[in-house]
Amino acid sequence: MSAKPAQPVPASKQPGRKGRLHTNTVDALHRMIVTGELPPGQKLREQELCDRLGVSRTPLREALRTLAAQGLVRLTQNRGAEVAPLTLSDIVALFDVVGTLEALAARLACKTMPDEAIAEVGVLHYRMMLHHVRDELPEYFALNQQIHRAVVEAAENPVLLGVWETLAARVERAKYLPNLQPNRWKAAMHEHDAMLAALVARDGEALGRLIEAHFANGLAAILAANREEPAQATAAQAERD
Fold it and tell me: Which residues fall within 8 angstroms of residue 8, CB to CB, at 6 or more apart?
């Protein structure tokens, strides 16, 4: 029996050029902010970004409004747009809340997640592992975020998902900091190995504890790095003196 030819997607359901342009602009700016290419507090000059991204001012402004809703950009009447600050107190609060949310999601997901969906998370995990081996941090983080989102969505709790989505971009940005350190990145990968095993076993309590520990360890790495920076600056100044 011959396979039926693929049916074309109706034009009304295809993403329009405007929608694709908005998504691409948001994604590009999101990546630049999360990776630190655009650091906290940096002024976002419209013409410079338009030239850099190859877009006009209208889609750029729409993208900035989207990123402001995600907490990555701050819009003010007098100063325009700038990359939102990310303080240590912000990070501590974010990790506490999102770690708790994801632990709850994990406990729920282990009861309801189809076997096929768990297998798909496994595929994402091993692709992520390959990027870790290759030292490809942006690609690693893209898959990392997909895995965390898949578990939260599998909880089938729209309130939980809605709250998580309002915080996810800022947490992703903060998580990038300790994983720039090779030791923390390696440890995070091992933690994901254990989390996948708990998910496959449908051990929601174990997975919840592992996720809480994962966030606690990431936060500890950020705090440790923050303590080291002043000491390194002092040592460098002493050498110059």
Answer: none
CATH architecture under which domain 16-83 falls: Orthogonal Bundle (1.10)
CATH 1.20.120.530 fits 88-229, yes or no: yes
How many angstroms separate the CA atoms of 47 and 174, rounded?
A: 28
Pick left, alpha or beta for residue 135 (phi over 0 → left; psi -120 to 50 → alpha; otherwise beta): left
CATH 1.10.10.10 residue ranges for the chain: 16-83
Tally of CB atoms within 10 A around 194: 15
Cα distances (Å, whole numbers) of residue 53 to 78, 89, 123:
24, 33, 32
Give the pLDDT confidence of 45-68 residue by residue, as tens digits. Answer: 999 999 999 999 999 999 999 999
Nearest to residue 85, comparing CAs of 8, 76, 77, 230? 76
Where in the chain are all domains bearing CATH 1.20.120.530?
Answer: 88-229
Q: How far apart are the first and last CA of the chain?
A: 82
pLDDT of 169-188, one tens digit each? 999 888 887 656 778 889 99
